[in-house]
Structures are given as C-alpha cells and as structure tokens.
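Following up on my earlier thread - several people asked me to post the actual chain instead of describing it. Fair enough. Here it is, all 170 residues.
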Amino acid sequence: MAKLSEEKELQTITKRFSDAVSAFTRRDFPAAHQQFTEIVESYKDSEHYSVLEITGRSNVYLRMVDAQLNPQKIELKSAEDLLNEAIYQMNAGQVDRALTLFADLNKKQGKDPYVDYLMAIALHRKGEVEESLALLKQCIDQDAHFKVMAFNEPDFEPLLDNRDFRDLVS
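Reply from S.P.:
Thanks for posting it. Predicted structure:
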C-alpha cells in the first residue's frame, strides 16, 4: 500500500513540477514562483525520497526565479570594477556597452594605454578597423610591448593580411 501511495504522490508532483518548469521556460516568472512555492510547501514533509528529490529541485528553481524577479544591481565603484565589467560586456558581445565603459574608465582614471588597447579590440569587433588601428598605434607609441600583444591577439588575427596592421606590429 505504501508503494502505491509513493507512486501516486510521485506522479502528482512530477506533473506539477513539469508545469512549473514550463512556466519558467516561458519566462513567466511570477507563475513559476507560485508553482514552485506550492510544490515545496505541499511536499516538504513527504516520507518518500523520490518526492523529496523533486522538492529539492523545486527549491533550486525557486532561487533562480527569485534571481530573475529581483535582480541585483551591481554598482561599479572602482576603476577595477569598470574594467572588469567592460571586459565582460565585450566578451558577451555587448561591444557598444563595453566601449562606453572603457571611455568612462579613461575619464575616471586618465588615459591608460591598456584600456585603449582593449578599446581597439572592441572597435575591431565592431568592424571599425581604421579607428581600431589608430587607437592601437597610440598604444604602441606609448608602450612597445603592445606590438607583441596585438600580434598575438586572436581578435586581431583577421588583420594579419592588412598592411597597416602588419606595419604596426612588425
């Protein structure tokens, strides 16, 4: 009889969990929050391991839903914060946002050839080759080690056929 009770409880929670995951996948976070909360509350005292396992998974989803409903605002206070966020945005494909953050960083701490080097990479990713090369030239004029960095930079690899780029890094 206990086995029948477990199977019925497992069937019910599995259906409810599936519905909640569907709401999550649809990005209907309020509905997903309600459904996962109800699952956790309804089955938290179950004596069946398989049911408690789904309750645990519901808790994980509930935390993800909470993060979506209440996103944390990150304050970029220090120059290092700005630099890290700009690099993150550039790597995430948000090149315009990265360029804005790099410009803010240069305003905050003064012109920095490393920041300009990163801006040159971002400009190249954006397809603005001439602007990228002009900024890269400024970096190299300030510190010759940027020649080596640019030559070995995977983002600049497509420019190896560009005469202006080769002249800069040779």
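The chain has a mean pLDDT of 92. That should answer part of your original question.
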